[in-house]
Write a structure and sequence with these properties.
The structure is a single chain. The chain is mostly beta strands. The chain has one domain (2-8, 16-155): Jelly Rolls (Sandwich). It is built from two helices and nine strands; from the N terminus they run E-H-E-H-E-E-E-E-E-E-E. It has helices at 22-25, 40-43, and strands spanning 2-3, 26-30, 51-52, 59-79, 85-95, 100-111, 118-138, 149-150, 152-155. Strands 1, 2, 4, 5, 6, 7 and 9 form a seven-stranded antiparallel β-sheet that branches. Strands 3-8 form a two-stranded antiparallel sheet. The longest helix is centred in the N-terminal third of the chain and has 4 residues, at 22-25. It starts with a strand and ends with a strand. It comes from Opitutus terrae (strain DSM 11246 / JCM 15787 / PB90-1). This is Carbohydrate-binding protein.
Length: 156
Amino acid sequence: MIKRTISTATPRTGEGPGWLRLDDAAEVEISSESETNPIEAALLLDDARGWRADAPGEQTIRLKFLRPHALRRVRVVFEEHERERTQQFALRAAIAPANTWTDIVRQQFNFSPVGATREEEEYRVDLREVTTLELTIKPDLRGGDARASLQELRIS
């Protein structure tokens, strides 16, 4: 499924510490989404519901910028309150002009309903001319029926 929000307006920063308003700056491609937790809920600055996949297994969220963008910070927040699992996520960026992929981070986190229910990460990067930012989530490295979720994704 491909979702696209197209705007001719100049991208503007949102509330907070200079986060880019992604609804003005990028198209988004996703591998799946639940009806009650669409991808906009994790990307827009004024929506706190978060995104959730409608199918188990590995999921991909890809932001395709309308114009190449300089990337300085990437913030991801994941929450899991129901099950114990080990999640892995990877962030990478495609750089113009050849759309060469550059890895930003690959990380694992252990969620536990009685302990660690929230993972919050902010990465400082210095990437110019980014055309695409891709987040891949493996919700449970043991397999099973875990569904990927993302509380928020912010970039500046």
